[in-house]
Amino acid sequence: MKVTVKKCLLAAVAAWTVCSARADEGMWLLQLIKQQNSIEMMKKQGLKLEADDLYNPNGVSLKDAVGIFGGGCTGEIISPEGLILTNHHCGYGAIQQHSSVEHDYLTDGFWAKNRNEELPTPGLKFRFVHRIVDITDLVNEKVKAGEVDEVNAMTRPFLNKLAKEELEKSDLNGKPGIVAQALPFYAGNKYYLIYYKVYSDVRMVAAPPSSVGKFGGETDNWMWPRHTGDFSMFRIYADVNGEPAEYSASNVALKTPKFLPISIKGLQEGDYAMIMGFPGTTRRYLTQSEVKQRMEAVNQAMIDMRGVRLEVLRKFMNASDKTRIQYASKFAGSSNYWKNSIGMNKAIIDNEVLNTKAEIEKRYAEFAKGKPEYEGVVEKIDAIIEKGTPTLRQLYYTNE
What is the radius of gyration, based on Cα positions, of the chain? Predict the structure, then answer.
């Protein structure tokens, strides 16, 4: 069995067989794999792992080999000494951080020949999922008690405060590197508290030259097929006890309890493949009107405004190597979601997403007939979206 690990949903798993043109996917949260019966389906298609091999809060599992690199990318541990494999575009900011006109690692690439050549990268962190706790009942109790309403229960201020309170009561409180984050799932129908173990001494090990890592010169993070050597490598360091610590020359490479061995045999027809990772959010429950709002108010603002911004940046970056290096990460980040917005709008049109949503809403309307708690809900959402879209469009153009 060959296992491929890349970006996907926050703490979620998707699986397919290579010989099939259709991928089975969904919000398969690690902590719900047993309840969602997804493990049985994956086994039928060739998975040889048990549910506890994927996520085990009380033992070693794949959660200890897959984590969050930097602000939200997926990173995989590929050696017993904390070696991280992630995307080139994910490591791009760190590569820029170490680059100068004299040492242009963005253009030329970088490879540490030994541990002493690995470069400390202040500000770069790596997070492992340590434990996931269902706090839906706790949030609902606070809503029922009037401490918060249903809308504000999904906001960052409330959830950050709740996470802080729960961490202080937890047996993990005070443990090195432990932080907590409360998040809404399924449009606020479920809430989970995720405890992370955060390592803050992460050093750059390797990066290909941009001719490989950004082959073609255009952001292709959202295109397929891809022809880019989109990888970079880093290593986690810890104190002598293996605990998270700020950078110190005395820190040692982290002894990782789980890592992903690399196969060089290549893929064969019918081989099983699995994707596991991060980051962050889905929008699968949007109505037709909400999808149109995303296209016309949010995405179009990014396409229009970032297109102008990128032209300005490109002009000055092309004129000076120093400016090119200094603005490389900002340019790449802006370009990333500029391309994402273009691709998203095209995919919505090409895949007739609006027609599909309309058909779903038609079936929902039939189901809702005679049920006051469901009847007219979509129409109410549509009215709110119509009223709010002009303001949202102005907001996004202003923000951009």
Answer: 23
- Tens-place pLDDT, residues 44-87: 888 888 989 988 888 899 999 999 999 889 999 999 999 999 99
Chain-centroid distance, C-alpha 156: 18
Q: Tell me how many degrees the CA angle 190-193-198 measures, rounded to the nearest 5.
A: 145
CB atoms within 10 A of CB 319: 10
Residue 55, token pair as written in the block = 């996520």
β pairing state of 201-207 and 66-69: unpaired
Please give the pLDDT value at position 25.
56
- 8 close to 275: Cβ distance less than 8 angstroms: yes
Q: Please state, in angstroms and as integers, the Cα–Cα distance from residue 396 to each residue in 157, 292, 294, 302, 313, following that order.
A: 22, 15, 11, 8, 20
The continuous run of DSSP H or E covering 395 comes out as: helix 377-399
User: In 3D, which of 17, 58, 13, 8 has the Cα closest to residue 32?
Assistant: 13
Number of CB atoms found within 10 A of residue 234's CB: 26
Do the beta carbons of residue 132 and residue 31 sit within 8 Å?
yes
CA–CA dist 223, 237 (Å, integer): 34
The reported pTM is: 0.83
Please say if the pLDDT value at position 19 is more than 70. no
In 10 A of CB 380, how many CB atoms?
Answer: 9
How many degrees, rounded to 5, is the angle at CA 88 between CA 82 and CA 93?
A: 90
Give the whole-angstrom CA distance, residue 148 versus residue 142. 6
